[in-house]
């Protein structure tokens, strides 16, 4: 996967030079190891900045809604599904896009890597196809990348881009994970009070910074319900009730649309696994409506369509 | 995520189904009354005005 960088730069340069796109949305190397930044490039000579590593975990589909230009965009499996969601929801037109698909073997979780070195500063990270070597003051350690993947990448069933105009490498084998929802099932077994305790504990450190919302490609409302002052739907304090209201509503706004890209969890500065909210909804969308978000640009989302045999056992 | 099932009811009632409406409303009230005062999602701190 590490060789993708060169290919990405080559494709981007060609697209800009031939004026097939006005803009490339990709990644550049972060100012710290284990980090990347999103970058928008308009001149072919600046495509050298484009970069690829196992830390390109941001979802670039976040930068698409309502853009007018012709755009070349780098997309992993999950990102491509979010691009499909944007197309279905009329946030961008398919004709505007040149999707540079990246078959993905999973992103490495920088927090899991950081926890290996016990608070010491990682100064350098060197990657090969399978391994990652981290170096710092007085330590050097090599690990297998597959042992330190992001949680959402461990259960990912769609590693290859679902829509693309060009691929940067051969398609990777999709895993036949028998059950990606083990953790959700465990929570489903709990009594209501135990669930409440679990979720209250989960968000107790939340500072309401809204990084999870901002990192999420699904959250593109011009005014988010939490920012609306008149009427004020939810209090702006970190009162546990306000915080819980925010998290419940944020999750439900993603129902049937979430691709479990993990951008929310990666963005959280206090390391809350906010995916525990959305994953239950993903499981329901799959089990009740047979729907996984963003697998096609023709299919309407489950909450936007009606079928006579839709699940309705909860209505009397 | 732990909202008590006793407090959550879904029903589809046509405007011509008055008896069903009364029946459902009574049942909702009974189950909620059994559940007692609500403790979750209640703001206990003073509102800053």
Task: Summarize the entry for a quick read.
The complex is a heterodimer of chains A (316) and B (49). Chain A is of the alpha/beta class and 316 residues long.
The string of secondary-structure elements of chain A, in order, is HEEEHEHEEEHEHHHHHH
Largest interface: A-B, 22 and 16 residues
Terminal Cα separation of chain B, in Å?
Answer: 30 Å
Helix content percent band of chain A:
25-40%
- The helix count of chain A comes to 10
> Which structural class is indicated by helix and strand composition of chain A?
alpha/beta
Number of domains of chain A: 2
Low-confidence stretches of chain B: none
Number of strands of chain B: 0
Q: Provide the succession of SSEs of chain B.
A: H
Poorly predicted runs of chain A are none
Radius of gyration of chain A: 20 Å
User: In order across it, which strands form the biggest sheet of chain A?
Assistant: 2-1-3-4-8
Q: Approximately what portion of the residues of chain A adopt beta-strand conformation?
A: 5-15%
Give the termini distance of chain A in whole angstroms.
52 Å
Tell me the major beta sheet of chain A.
5 strands, mixed
Structural class computed from helices and strand pairing of chain B: mainly alpha
Task: Indicate the overall shape of chain A.
Answer: globular
Radius of gyration of chain B: 15 Å
């Amino acid at each position: 996967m590490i060789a993708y960088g060169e290919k990405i730069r080559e494709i981007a340069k060609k697209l800009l030079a031939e004026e097939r796109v006005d803009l490339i949305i990709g990644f550049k190397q972060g100012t710290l190891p284990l980090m990347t930044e999103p970058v928008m490039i308009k001149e072919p000579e600046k495509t050298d900045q484009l970069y690829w590593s196992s830390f390109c975990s941001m979802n670039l589909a976040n930068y698409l809604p309502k853009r007018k230009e012709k755009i070349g965009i780098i997309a992993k499996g999950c990102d491509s599904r979010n691009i499909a969601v944007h197309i279905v929801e009329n946030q961008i037109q398919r004709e505007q896009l040149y999707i540079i698909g990246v078959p993905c073997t999973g992103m490495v979780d920088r927090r899991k890597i950081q926890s290996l070195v016990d608070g010491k500063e990682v100064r350098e990270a060197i990657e090969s196809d399978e391994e990652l070597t981290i170096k710092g003051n007085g330590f050097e350690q090599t690990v297998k990348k597959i042992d330190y993947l992001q949680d959402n990448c461990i259960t990912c069933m769609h590693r290859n881009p679902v829509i693309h105009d060009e691929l940067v490498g051969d398609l990777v084998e999709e895993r036949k994970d028998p059950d990606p929802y083990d953790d959700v099932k465990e929570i489903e077994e709990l009594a209501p009070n135990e669930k409440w305790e679990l979720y209250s504990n989960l968000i107790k450190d939340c500072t309401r910074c809204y990084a999870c919302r901002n990192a999420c490609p699904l959250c593109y409302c011009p005014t988010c319900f939490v920012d609306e002052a008149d009427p004020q739907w939810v209090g702006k304090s970190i009162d546990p009730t306000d915080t819980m209201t925010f998290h419940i509503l944020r999750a439900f706004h993603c129902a049937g649309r979430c691709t479990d890209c993990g951008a929310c969890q990666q963005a959280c500065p206090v390391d809350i696994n906010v995916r525990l909210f959305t994953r239950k909804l993903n499981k329901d969308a799959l089990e009740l409506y047979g729907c996984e978000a963003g697998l096609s640009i023709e299919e309407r989302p489950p909450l936007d369509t009606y079928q006579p045999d839709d699940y309705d056992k909860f209505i009397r | 995520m732990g909202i008590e099932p006793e407090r959550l009811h879904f029903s589809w009632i046509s405007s011509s189904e008055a008896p069903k409406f009364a029946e459902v409303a009574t049942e909702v009230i009974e189950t909620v009354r059994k559940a007692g005062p609500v403790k979750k999602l209640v703001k206990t701190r003073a509102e800053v005005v």
